[in-house]
Amino acid sequence: MKNYLIKLIISTILIVVLSHFLKIEITDYTAAIFMAVALSFLNTFLKPILVLFTIPVTIFTLGLFLLVINAIIVKVADYFIDGINVPTFITAIVFSILLSISQYILNKIFVDE
Fold this sequence. Notes:
It holds the Pfam family Phage_holin_4_2. InterPro entries: Phage_holin_4_2 (IPR007165). This is Putative membrane protein. Keywords: Membrane, Transmembrane, Transmembrane helix. By secondary structure, the chain is mainly alpha-helical. It has one domain. The protein contains five helices and two strands. The longest helix has 25 residues, at about 30-55. The chain is globular, with a radius of gyration of 14 Å.
């Protein structure tokens, strides 16, 4: 539970920081917290289903279609969270790439496994 909370805090901070660099509008910090929670749940439950249904496309594109799946997850979370606005699909792709890389690095530093 402690590791999950640390990962959630890291994700929230990264969402706020990345929103300043990209054209993502966040109304308040609670929206960023809800976005982190929504991304966590969507990555846990929806992403495996999408990956399963798109295995042929993912193999054909040598795994690059997973970037599209990550962007779809971001846009779905954007749809459900009122205080977040991700304007374009390209912004969602760049956001998901930067968020994934940043989360990987910071989780290796701060989370005990």
